[in-house]
């Protein structure tokens, strides 16, 4: 029965992802900004007003991010096939294979043309696949609708203030359970908000460093690469690898030699390595220790279930589960498994 219930839950989460993902993202954002809302309330600023200010700030940040990335991202998406072919061509030139490939392609083309002349049959070309920009344009309305839904739901959660905590206390049967429920809720809020705040600040610093470094190396649109580094670094491990590959491909197209492209990718990799191995463990790891293998599994699982948004929310959901395991006795063995070095025995 437990196995069937888990399978049913996974199926429901997958089928209802269009609705579930924005709801969970709104809850995570509300956890991050609940503290500032309470701080403003103590200074006699109404919660609806502070919630509106926070949501408008988020909207402005999303608008700036989209405007700054729109033109370069559209160019990268449109040039993706040509970029892949050019990268492959340049790499093959290193081993001398390109000449043989070109010769074989010319022979195949000549043979096909001769066969067409003999049969006097017109050649019909059918394009069945849509271009990358078309796919993005078709998915844009859904993305915009989900973004608006996230902002509206976040506003109402923040504007409601402590209503959720009051209802949580009301449904608990006795005082001990009420106190424990409030303790768990505030602990989850504190850990998730602390993690997301620290990661956002770290990623912002990484984005600035990547933008300045790639601009100094002669890369086009260094600010776009800085913004991409900021956004992709919310996905552990995978975001850094994607950034290295993308920077290498764009550098290979725009810089004169393979060595220059390798330097660009190497600098990007070096900066993300310093962030991942030094900065983040120093600022975040002292308060939050998670098993690295579990993080990889969580990122892969939520990516399989919810694609890119799943990868972004994987670690905050893992942090939430880790906090729940600390407070619920039945889940303590799972908490031991989730914890990283030095945390399991604490």
Account of the 3D structure:
It is a single chain. This protein has about 350 residues and is mainly alpha-helical. It contains 13 helices and no strands. The chain has helices spanning about 1-15, 15-40, 45-80, 80-95, 95-120, 130-160, 165-170, 175-215, 220-230, 240-255, 260-285, 290-325, 330-340. α2 crosses α12, α4 (about 80-95) packs across α10 (about 240-255) and α9 packs antiparallel against α10. The chain is globular.
Provide the residue-averaged pLDDT: 79
Please, what is the oligomeric state? Answer: single chain
Total of helices? 13
Shape: globular
Task: Spell out the blueprint of helices and strands.
Layout: H1 2-15, H2 17-42, H3 47-78, H4 80-95, H5 97-119, H6 132-159, H7 163-171, H8 175-216, H9 222-232, H10 238-254, H11 258-285, H12 292-327, H13 332-338
Helix pairs in contact: 2-3, 2-6, 2-8, 2-12, 3-4, 3-6, 3-9, 4-10, 7-8, 8-9, 8-11, 8-12, 9-10, 10-11, 12-13
What are the defining features of this structure?
346 residues, mainly alpha, 13 helices
Short description:
This protein is mainly α and 346 residues long.
């Amino acid at each position: 029965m437990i196995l069937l219930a888990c399978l049913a839950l996974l199926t429901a989460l997958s089928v209802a992802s269009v609705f579930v993902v924005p709801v969970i993202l709104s809850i995570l954002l509300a956890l991050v900004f609940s503290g500032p809302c309470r701080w403003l309330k103590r200074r006699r600023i109404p919660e609806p007003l502070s919630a509106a200010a926070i949501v408008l700030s988020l909207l402005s940040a999303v608008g700036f991010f989209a405007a700054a990335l729109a033109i370069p991202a559209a160019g990268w998406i449109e040039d993706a096939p040509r970029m892949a072919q050019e990268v492959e061509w340049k790499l093959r030139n290193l081993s001398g294979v390109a000449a043989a490939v070109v010769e074989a392609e010319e022979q195949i083309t000549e043979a096909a043309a001769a066969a067409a002349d003999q049969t006097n049959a017109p050649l019909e070309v059918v394009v069945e696949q849509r271009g990358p920009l078309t796919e993005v344009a078709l998915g844009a309305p859904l993305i915009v609708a989900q973004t608006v839904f996230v902002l509206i739901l976040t506003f109402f959660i923040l504007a409601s203030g402590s209503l959720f905590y009051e209802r949580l206390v009301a449904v608990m049967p006795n005082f001990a359970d009420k106190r424990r429920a409030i303790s768990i809720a505030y602990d989850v809020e504190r850990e998730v908000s602390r993690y997301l705040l620290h990661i956002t600040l770290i990623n912002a610093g990484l984005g600035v460093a990547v933008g300045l470094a790639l601009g100094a190396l002669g890369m086009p649109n260094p600010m776009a690469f800085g913004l991409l580094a900021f956004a992709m670094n919310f996905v552990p491990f995978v975001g850094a690898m994607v950034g290295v590959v993308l920077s290498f491909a764009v550098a290979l197209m725009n810089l004169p030699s393979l060595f220059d492209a390798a330097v660009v990718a190497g600098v990007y990799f070096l900066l993300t390595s310093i962030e991942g191995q030094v900065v983040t463990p120093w600022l975040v790891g002292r308060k939050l220790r998670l098993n690295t293998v579990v993080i990889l599994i969580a990122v892969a699982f939520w990516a399989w279930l919810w694609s890119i948004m799943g990868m972004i929310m994987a670690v905050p959901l893992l942090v939430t589960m880790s906090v729940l395991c600390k407070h619920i006795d039945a889940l303590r063995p799972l908490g031991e498994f989730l914890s990283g070095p030095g945390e399991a025995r604490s």
